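[Primary structure, fold]
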Amino acid sequence: MEKGNIYDFIVKKPFTEKVKTVRKNKDGEEEEVTKNKTVKKDLKIVIKKPTRKLSNEAAEQYSVELSTCVKKGILTKAMLTKKYADTGGALTESETTELLKMLQKSTDLSNQLQLLESQNAPAEEKEELTKQILSIRNEMIGIQASMQTVYQHTADAIAERAMILWYVIQLTRYVEDGLAKPFFEGMTYEDQKDNFYEKDESDEEYISDVLDKAMKVVSYWFYAQHSTKKEIDEFLKNADSEL
């Protein structure tokens, strides 16, 4: 995987090729006939790492969406948390503290792993740290998922989903002739978003595969920053096994 990518994968895309065959005509003479034949070929998909500029634009996208939701009267997570706290629902203060501790531990272990890699430490040590990091991150994602059920209609959650979609659209590329090109077409973001929804309704299997995997990869990356390809592979494997 290239350094500038979060992840890459291969899908099988149908291509139409012209195939020449020789047949005999009614006079018994041989003639060349060209026919269209559909074949499936590998298409490489890459999820690019966002530049600082793209990350800033994503934050702006989040702020705009959040502001729009609040103006419509949709509660934020903070408002809903306070409401649940009064009735003893959602996460307690201790549970929130535990989640923050897990985040800090994940960061510390990631720093240790980077240090071991720079020192060419034994593979066994790095493997053990990687397992610990993946375990913590998966647990955090599980908590986020359970919280999402409660908070999925809050302004924050709506804005967060909008930002993840923005990242998917901006970062997903397909490789053609050695060049990474935008998977979603359009001159503006609104055009690209419309193209996303058009593709989402497509019956083509390879497009469904791209959208499904791109959403999962970007979501995992969003909640578990500095994730490796190996960690994403494991996450996708677990996600697919739960279907």
Remarks:
- The helical segments are 52-71, 77-87, 93-118, 123-151, 155-171, 189-200, 205-223, 229-241.
- The first helix runs from residue 52 to 71.
- The first strand starts at residue 5 and ends at 24.
